[in-house]
Amino acid sequence: MKAAYAQAQQKYTLAIIGAAAILAGTTIVAANRQFSVLEGTILDSIYGLPELLTDLMYVVTQAGSVGAVAAVIITAFVLKRRQLAALLLANTLIAYVITAVIKEVIARPRPAEVLPAIVVRLEHATGFGFPSGHTAIATVMALTLMPYTAKKYRWLLWLWIAGVGFSRLYLGVHAPLDVIGGFCIGVIVACSARLVGMHLLSQKKR
Question: Is residue 157 part of a domain?
Answer without folding.
Answer: yes
